[in-house]
Amino acid sequence: MLRLICLLIIILAASCQQDPKLFNKISSEASNITFQNTISNTSQLNILNYLYFYNGAGVAAGDFNNDGLADLYFVANQNQDKLYLNKGNLEFEDVSKRANLLNENNWTTGVTTVDINNDGLLDLYICLVGAYSESKNLLYVNKGIENGIPTFENESAKYGLDISSYATQAVFFDFDLDGDLDMFLLNHSVHPNRTYGKGSARKTYSKESGDILFENREGIFVDVSKEKGIFQGKTGYGLGLSVSDINNDGYPDIYIGNDFFENDYLYLNQKGQTFKEIISTNSTALGHTSHYSMGNAIADINNDSRPDILSLDMLPEDLETYKVSGMEFSYPVYEQYLKNGYSPQYMQNTLHINNGNETFSESAYLSGISGTEWSWSPLIADFNNNGAKDLYITNGILGATNNMDFINFISNEKIQNKIENGLKETDFQLFKDIPERKASNYFYVNNRDNTFSNVTNSWSSTKASLSNGAVYADLDNDGDLDIVVNNINETAYLLENTSNTIPSTNYLKVGFNGSKLNRDAIGAKLIAYIHSEPLFFENYTTRGYLSAVAPKLNIGVGASKKIDSLVVIWPNGFYEKQFNLNVNQEITLQYSEAIQQNYYNNFPPRQESYLSNVPSPISFKHKDPYTLDFNKNPLIPYASSNWGPKNAVIDFDNDGLDDVFLSGGKSQASALLIQNKDGTFRNTQKDLFKQTALNEDTSSLFFDANLDKNPDLLVVSGGNEFKKGRPISPRLYLNTNGILTLHETAFNEIETNASSVKAVDFDNDGDLDVSITSNSDPSAFGKTPEQFLFLNDGDGTFKNITSEYAKAFQFIGNVTDVAWVDLDSNGYKDLIAVGHWMPVSIFLNSGTALELQNTDTLKHTNGWWNTVQVNDFDKDGDFDIVVGNWGLNTRLQATPDEPIQLYTNDFDNNGKEESIVTHFYNGVETTFSTKEELTKQIPLINKKYLSFEAFAKADLNQIFSPQKLENAKKKECFELASSYLENIGGLRFKKMSLPFSSQISSVNTIHVDDFNKDGFLDLLLAGNNYEISTQLGRLDASHGSVLLNDRLGFFKMAKNQNFDIAGPARSINKIKMNNKVHYIIGINNKAPIFLIQNE
Amino acid sequence: MKYIKILVVTICVLLSACKQAEPLVIEADELHHSIDHVIKVMIHDIFSPPVASRIFAYPNIAAYEIVALNNSKYTSLVGQLKGLTPIPASETPVNYQLAALISHIELSKQLVFSEEKIEIYRDSLYISWKKKNRNEFLNAETYGLQVADHISQWMDGDNYKQTRTMSKFHVISEDEGRWQPTPPSYMDGLEPHWNKIRPFVIDSAAQFKPTPPPAFSMEEGSDFYKELQEVYDISNRITAEGDASEEVQVAQFWDCNPYVSVTRGHLMFATKKITPGAHWIGITKIACKKSESNFDDSVFTYAKTSLAIADAFISCWDEKYRSNLVRPETLINTYFNDNWKPILQTPPFPEYSSGHSVVSGAASIALNSIFGNEFSFDDTSELAYGLPMRHFESFDAAADEAAISRMYGGIHYRSAVEIGIQQGRSLGDYVVANLNMKSK
C-alpha cells in the first residue's frame, strides 16, 4: 500500500514537472545577446512604398576569430547590425564596434559568409536594398584578429561586388568548377503591381531587380548573367536562394524562390557553360511550385543521396486564418494565367522529392508540411542526431496584407482618401489596422518515410513570434545543432539543442581544408554510410532565409558507434573514401589527400530501371478542349471532363505485329494505327473515324463480337458535356477482312457518358458480352448515372439486360471501372465495380443474375476510385484487388468518421440544386470552396456573413441551415488512398494503403506485370489530374511508379526508376514493337508516352 | 383659491393637449437621406452595377405604388410593369407618405447584405416617429411592411436567384477578339446572365440590341484597329497633359467603379465608389431638390429614373455577353505597350456596349421627361469621394460627358460609347413613352 502511495506521489510529481524539451531557449541575460530587428514605418520607407518592409533580416554563424567557436552576425533592417563573439558556454559578447562592423544602412536584408580572399579568415557579404539610396552591398573582409577580435573593412569595390540593387541575398559557389568561388546575387522586384502580365517579362532586363550571376575572374567578379542564361526581369520577386547539385552531375545548380505570380526558377548547370531553367520550359518536371515563395532549402530528406527541395509559402495551418486569407484565382482565371506564360503555382509549402532523373514529386501535403502559416526560413538538419534530417521553420508577419476583410472593408474606410493625398506620420496608425499574424516556429521530426510529424510542442517551448532569418550551428561544440533566430521587434532567439544528453545518439563533425582558391571547400559533398544507408550532405553556407551557416557539417549518426565509410567529393570532383570512422569527434578533411580522379567518372549513377522512355513512333497527340465543368459549377472539387484517352492494342491485321487504336478527345477523330515491320505506324481508315470526331472517346476495346475470329472494335464516349445524342452513343465497328464498318444499330438504344467498356462472357455461352459503365451525369455533379450490361446473342447483336440480370448494378453509383473474375469459383465471372462516392462493390454471378454482396470488410471503402485490377498477387489461390484512388497529397482527407461529403440540395430556394462538398479539417467539417465562390452561387450567405472573419468562424450548419443539410441528398467518401485489398477468404478483404509513391497523386491506371521476373506480379501505376479546383492545387506529382511484389503479400517502391510518365496519364497498354515489350501510356491532352521494358 | 383651481385645471388641460400626438409630416428630404444611406451601405457591401440597379428599382416602386394609391396625381404601375399586381389597400387610414418611406427602407434592407447598417438607421427614425405619434407610426409601419412584402414576392420572380447558380462566363482564350479577364485582379466576367433578369418596362433584354461593334481585326487601317489606336492615342495625350487635363478630370468624375483594386507596397486594398446607377440617382436627388419637388413628386422621379436605369443595365448586359468584345487594355498590352494602364481600372466584363453610356442615356431621357431638357444643375454627387463638383447645362450634356469619359478613361472604344448612348436614349424614350405614371 505504502508502495502504491509512493508510486502515486512520484507519478504526480513527475506530471507536475514540465516535460524536458529537446531545445532550451537561452535567455538574453544568460547569452548577452540583446539584438533585435526593430522596425518602424517612416515616411521615407514603409509598407506602402516598400512591399518587403515586414520580411525581416538574416543571421550568419561562423568562426570569425578562429577560436573554434561559432560566432553570430545579426542583420538589422533599419538599424545597426551586430557581431557577437562566442565566448563559450553559450555566452556572447557584442564586438561590432571594435570589429569595425558598423553597417546601419536602411535597408539591409541578407548576409552570407565566405572566405573571399582565402586567407583563412571568414568574411561577410551583406545585401542592401540600396537602389533607393544609391548605397551598395558590403563585402566585409576580415583583416586579422587581435586579442581575439577580428576587424573588418568593406572591400566590395575591389572585388567588383559593390552592387546597388534591391538585393535579397548572395550565394558563393564554383559554378564553372575552375576552382575559385563565383557568386549569384538574388535581387527582388519592388514593382508593387500584382498584375501578372506576360511570363515572358522574365526575359527582359531590370538593373535593380534582375538577378546577377558573377564569374570570378582572378579575384574580380564579372557579371556573366546574360551569356549564362539567367533571367533578369522586373518580375523576379526573388526571396529564396539555394545551391545544390540537384542532378548529381558534379555541377552545382541554383533554385530561386520568387514571390507572387512569377515562377520559381530551377537553373540546371550545363557543365559550367550555361544554365537551363526548367520550370518555365517544362511544366511537368517539378509540377507545381509554391506561389508566394519565401525561403527555400535543398537537402536530402530521405537518405537516397538525392537533394530534395523545400520551398516555403504562407498557407495557414489554422482553418480560420486560411478562410480570411486571399486564395487562388478561380479555375477559369487560373487557366488564363497559365496561358500568359506561367507554370502552375499554389499557396502551399512545396517539398519536391528528387526522383533522380531531373523529375520531382511535390509531396508537401502527403509529407505533412504543406501549411506552416506565414513562413520564412526552412532549416533542414538532423536536429536529434538520429540519422534523418528534420525541419525547423520560422514564422510570422507583422501585417498580414492578404486579410480579405482588411482588403475589402477596413482599408477602404480608413485609407481611401488619405492615400491619394499622401500619408503623413500621423496616418501611420492605420498600419496598425493591418492584422498582425504572429505564429510559433515549427519543428518537424523526420519519420523516415518521406513524411514529417509536427513536434513543435515537444521539442520547444512555443511562443508566437515574428521570426525570419534563422541558422543552425553547434555553438557549444557538443555535437548537436543549436538554432539562432532573428526576430522582428523581439530579441533574437538562441535555442540550445540537448540531443547530446539523449543516450545512443552519436555524431560526427566535419570541417574542410579545401583547395587554395576555395579553402572552406564550398560545394563539397559528403556521404556517410551507416549500415549501408547513405547520409548525404553538401557544404554551402547560404542556408535558411537571408542567412548563412558556418562552412562545417554535423552528421547525426544515431545509435551506431561507427561510420562504415565516409566519402568526400571535393568541388572539382576529386574524392576520398575513409572507412570505419569513430563517432563523436570532429575531423577536418584535407583536399590534399584526395584521389585526383573524378568521382562522377569513376562512380557513374546507377541506371537500373525496369522501364525507360523511348521516342514516340507516332505523331498522334490527344487533344481535349478546356474543361467547362468549373464554369458550370465552380463549387466542385474536380472536373469529370478529361477521362480519355483509353487506347486499345491488338494485332488487328494478324501480321504478328501489335496495332493500336488511339482514342481522340472532343472534336478529334480517333485513329487506328497499324504497325509496319520497321516499328513505324500507318494511320488507316481515317475517314471512318472522322465521322464521329465530335465524340470524346473515353474507352475502347477490341474483341470478337460476332464470333468470326476477327477482332471488332467497341468505342464508348463521354466528356461530361453532351447530355444526349450521337456524341455519347457507343460505337461497334465490325471487322470484315481487316476493314472496320460502323454497325448502324448496335447499342443504339443507349446514350451514356461512359467511363469504361469491358468484354466478358458472363453467361458462359461462348460469346463475349459487354459491360459499359458511367461515372458522371453531365447535368449535375455527383448524380448517379446508369450502368449497363449487354448480352451477346452470338452473332454480334447485343441486348441490354441490366435490369433483369443485374438490377443492383444499374444504379450502383458513379462507376469508373470494373473487373470481371470468378471470385467464388462457381465457373461464372463475377463483377467488381469501383467508382466515386461508392465502395468497392462485388457482384457475384450465379449464372442467372449478378447479386450485390454485402461484405463487411468493404463496407467503408467509399472512395474516389479511378481504376481497379484484380489478380492473385500473393499466390494464395484467391483474387486480390488493387484500386487506384485520388491519393493523399491534397488538402483533402477522408475516413469513415470524417468523410468527404457531397450534399445536394436547393440551398437558396432558387429552384436549382447546388452541390456542396465538405471535408474535415482538424476535426471540423468545412467546405473547400472559397467564400467568394459560395456567395456567388448562394448570395444568402453574404447576408449572414459579409465579413470573411464571421464566415470563417461560422460552422457548416449555421451557413447552410441544419434542415437543408439534413434533407440534402448525400454521398460520402471514406478513403482517398490507393489501396491493396488482400483477399483473406470468404469475400473478406484486408485493406492496405499502397506505398508513398502511389499516394503522391491520383492513380488513374494500373498495369499488372512481373517486371523483375521473380514469378510474382508487380504493378505499374500512373496518374495525375490537372482539372481540379484551384483551391485544391493540382495533382501532378506522379511520374509513374513501379511497385514490386515483396512476396510477403504487399508491394514496395522500386528504386532507380529513371523513366518518366509526365502529365495526366489515363491508360497503359502493353505493345510489342521491334520484338521488344513496350508500353503505350495514354496522356490527356498530350502525345502518348512510350516506355520500353529493359531486359 | 378659486383662481388656483382654475389655474390647475388650465394647466391640466394644457398638459393633456401637449400629450396629444402631433401628426407626422414626411418631407422629401427624409426620402433623400434614406436613399443616401442605402447608397452608403451598397458601397460598403460592394454591389456590382447591374445588381445595384436592381436594389434601387424595387424600393422605389414600392414607395411609388403607395403614393399612387393615395395621390390622384399619379397612376399605379400595375399593368405597366411585368407581373406587378395591385398592392393591398390599407385597412385603416394611414399616413401614406410615412408608409411609403417605411416600405422603401424595409425593401432596401432586404436587398443589401449589411442589414444591420440599415437597421440602425431605420431604428433611430422609427424611435423618433414612435415618440411623436405612436399610433400613426404603427399604422404606417404595418401597412408599409405589408406593401414591402407584396413587392418582395413580385421581386422574387425576377429570376435573380436562379441566375446565381447559372454557369460562369466561358472565356474563349483562343480567340483574341473575345473578352478576357483584365488586370490587376483578373476577376471573372460579372453577371453573364443578367439578360435573363425580368425587365421592368422593355419587352425583352434584346429589344434595344445595338448594331454590332466594328468587326475585330488587328489589321492596321481596319475600323476596329483605328478605334483601338484612338483609345491608345487619347490616353497617351492626356496622360502627358497630366491630372489637371480636362479629359482626365472628366474620366475620374464619371469613374463610378464600385471596386477598384489598389496595391501599394505590400498593401492591397479596394477603393470603393458609387456605381453609374447611383450617380444618376444622385443627380435625380439634385434635380428634385433644385426643383423643390415634394415627397410624392420625388418618389415619382426616383421611381421613373430607376426603372430606366434598371432596364438599361439589362439591355446593355445582354449586348455585352453577346458581342463579348475584348477590352482595349488586353489588346494594347499585347500589341502596343505591355506597360500601358488605362486611366481608369478596366471593369470586369466585356467591352461593348459601354454600360455607363447606355445607363446615362436612359436616365437622362427619364429626367428630361420630368424636368425638361434645359435643366442646368451642379453635380455634387462625387464630392464625398474626393472629386470636385461639375456643372451641367442639361441632363443630356451630363450623359454625353459620362459616355465620352469612358474613352478618356481608356476602357472603351468610340463605338461602345456613341452607339451605347444611342442605345440608352432609345430605351429611355421607350420607357418614357410606355410608362403612364401621371393622371391625365
Could you characterize the architecture of this molecule?
The complex is a heterodimer of chains A (1095) and B (440). Chain A has 1095 residues and is mainly β. Chain A is globular and about 100 Å long. Chain B has two domains: 24-155, no CATH class; 180-434, Vanadium-containing Chloroperoxidase, domain 2 (Orthogonal Bundle). A two-stranded antiparallel sheet of chain B has the order 1-2. Chain B has a two-stranded antiparallel ribbon with strand order 3-4. Chain B is mainly alpha-helical. In chain B, helix 11 crosses helix 15 (414-434). Chain B contains 15 helices and four strands. In chain B, a hairpin with a 2-residue loop joins strand 1 (260-264) and strand 2 (267-271). Classes of the chains: A mainly beta (1095), B mainly alpha (440). At the A-B interface, helix 6, helix 8 and helix 11 of A face helix 7, strand 1 and strand 2 of B.
Which overall shape of chain B is indicated by the principal axes computed on the Cα atoms?
Answer: elongated
Helical fraction of chain B:
55-70%
Q: What integer value in Å does the Rg of chain A equal? A: 31 Å
Strand content of chain B: under 5%
DSSP helix count of chain A? 19
In DSSP terms (H or I, runs of 4 or more residues), the helix count of chain B works out at 15
Averaged pLDDT of chain B, please?
A: 93
CATH fold topology of the largest domain in chain B: Vanadium-containing Chloroperoxidase, domain 2
Q: Sheet bearing the most strands of chain B, described?
A: 2 strands, antiparallel
Query: What structural class should be given to the helix and strand makeup of chain A?
Result: mainly beta
Just name the CATH architecture of the largest domain in chain B.
Orthogonal Bundle
- In total, the number of strands of chain B is 4
Q: Uncertain spans of chain A, ≥5 residues at pLDDT below 50? A: 10-17
Instruction: Please write the string of helix (H) and strand (E) elements of chain B.
Output: HHHHHHHHHEEHHHHEEHH
